[in-house]
């Protein structure tokens, strides 16, 4: 069963606003997170989908619930269950099939954690599970069955539940920051800290500021990297205050965005990325190759061209990790290679991503071409 922390645990439901208010550019990102669609029938009604699809969604989403912020609705074609944005977040009964070769931990990440909240798989960099929840549930997620509660567990009790994860200065966040800084002091060869999750930009500004200031004090840390889907999903998260916090970080910053289809990139997303550029971060994109969504050179070329216009370069195109419930998204590697070849013939070299697969125990992601 999935153990992904869900938003209701993290955000209280006080101060609700109506659905009409929250996809505006001026809306508060916390309201958008809180007001995300969780009810299958609401989703079907809002998008003009047949009501009977709601039953299929409800039956399929067990353990990893439906979660779609309203900011995405305007980027989905109404009445089309095959829409390439909707498909990424739409639970289907195919998820319930047990398929040979698919498991809950294909990357063997559970054994790559030297300390609570830290994954140390590759030389010179560590990945930190900075926030366990996400503002959206991508059905192909490689961490959909991830045991956050186990991975984050401190050996010293008491351990508050996920619900208190980002609340209060004495909660588990300072503990995680301490655990990471202590690890970095013991491992001066680690020069890059990747704040990931879940979704690191669900941390509030104060928590992010403390991460950056604590990491900023460690001389052996050269770079801080974010792996985030937030500027794409909820561009309102990129506030002037956030840009200010990022700008004052003394280390070089890398922000790796996650999007899979050009239809995810609307005017508000482009504006958020423009704001992010003011923080002088290196902006990169990672995507997952997904059947029926972006397994086409046309779609990917448009995605890369659109983002290049705002200074974002493609970094990785990931072959799907074989996590239970995701087999219907898999694209054969031979097809992935053909797509990359076509991209090479059409785009400048810097707009062609590295097509990679994760191999447990390997010293880096494995290039597939
Ligand atoms: C992908 C990944 C990284 C980063 O790898 P890069 O090749 O540096 O982008 C680091 N740690 C873990 C656990 C990862 O999965
Ligand atoms: S945003 Fe990333 S971690 Fe969260 S559900 Fe989507 S793929 Fe998974």
What does this entry look like structurally?
Helix 7 packs parallel to helix 8 (205-216). The chain is an alpha/beta fold. Helix content is 30%, strand content 14%. Strand 5, helix 11 and strand 6 (282-288) form a beta-alpha-beta unit. Strands 1-2-3-4-5-6-7-8-9 form a 9-stranded mixed beta sheet. It contains 13 helices and 9 strands. Iron/sulfur cluster (SF4) binds next to loops.
**Share in helix:** 25-40%
**What integer is the average pLDDT?**
90
**Strand portion, in percent?**
5-15%
Q: End-to-end distance, in Å?
A: 34 Å
Count of alpha/pi helices: 13
Q: What is the H-and-E element order? A: HHHHHEEHHEHEHHEHEHEHEE
Largest sheet: 9 strands, mixed
Tally of extended strands?
9
Strand order of the largest sheet: 1-2-3-4-5-6-7-8-9
What small ligands are held by the chains?
Answer: pyridoxal-5'-phosphate, iron/sulfur cluster
List low-pLDDT spans.
Answer: 7-18, 154-168
What quaternary form is this?
single chain
Q: Which structural class do the helices and strands define?
A: alpha/beta
Query: Looking at the structure, what is the overall shape?
Result: globular
Q: How would you concisely characterize the structure shown here?
A:
The protein is an alpha/beta fold and 369 residues long. The chain has helices at residues 7-10, 29-34, 40-47, 52-60, 86-89, 148-151, 172-186, 205-216, 230-233, 240-247, 267-277, 297-308, 333-346; strands spanning 118-122, 125-131, 192-197, 223-228, 252-258, 282-288, 313-318, 354-357, 366-367. Helix 11 links the parallel strand 5 and strand 6 (282-288).
């Amino acid at each position: 069963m999935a153990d992904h922390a869900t938003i209701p645990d993290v955000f209280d439901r006080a101060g609700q606003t109506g659905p009409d208010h929250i996809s505006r550019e001026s809306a508060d990102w916390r309201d958008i997170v809180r007001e995300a669609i969780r009810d299958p029938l609401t989703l079907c009604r809002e998008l003009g989908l047949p009501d009977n699809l709601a039953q299929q969604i409800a039956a399929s989403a067990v353990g990893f619930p439906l979660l779609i912020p309203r900011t995405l609705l305007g980027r989905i074609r109404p009445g089309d269950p095959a829409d390439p944005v909707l498909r990424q977040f739409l639970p289907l009964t195919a998820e319930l099939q047990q398929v040979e070769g698919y498991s809950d931990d294909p990357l063997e990440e559970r054994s790559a954690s030297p300390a609570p909240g830290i994954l140390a798989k590759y030389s010179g960099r560590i990945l930190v599970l900075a926030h366990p929840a996400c503002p959206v549930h991508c059905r192909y997620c490689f961490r959909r069955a991830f045991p956050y509660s186990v991975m984050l567990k401190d050996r010293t009790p008491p351990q508050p539940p996920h619900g208190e994860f980002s609340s209060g200065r004495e909660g588990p966040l300072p503990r995680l920051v301490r655990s990471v800084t202590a690890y970095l002091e013991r491992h001066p060869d680690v020069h890059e800290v990747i704040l990931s999750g879940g979704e690191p930009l669900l941390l509030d500004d104060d928590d992010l500021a403390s991460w950056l200031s604590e990491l900023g004090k460690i001389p052996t840390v050269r770079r801080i990297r974010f792996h985030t889907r937030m500027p794409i999903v909820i561009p309102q998260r990129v506030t002037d205050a956030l840009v200010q916090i990022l700008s004052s970080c003394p280390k070089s910053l890398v922000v790796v965005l996650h999007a899979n289809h050009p239809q995810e990139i609307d005017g508000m997303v482009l504006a958020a990325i423009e704001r992010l550029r003011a923080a002088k971060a290196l902006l990169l994109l990672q995507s997952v190759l997904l059947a029926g969504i972006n397994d086409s050179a046309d779609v990917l070329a448009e995605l890369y061209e659109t983002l290049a216009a705002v200074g974002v370069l493609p970094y990785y195109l990931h072959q799907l990790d074989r996590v239970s419930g995701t087999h219907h998204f898999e694209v054969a590697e031979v097809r992935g290679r053909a797509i990359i070849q076509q991209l090479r013939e059409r785009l400048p070299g810097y707009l062609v991503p590295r097509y990679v697969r994760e191999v447990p125990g390997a010293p880096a992601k494995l290039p597939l071409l």
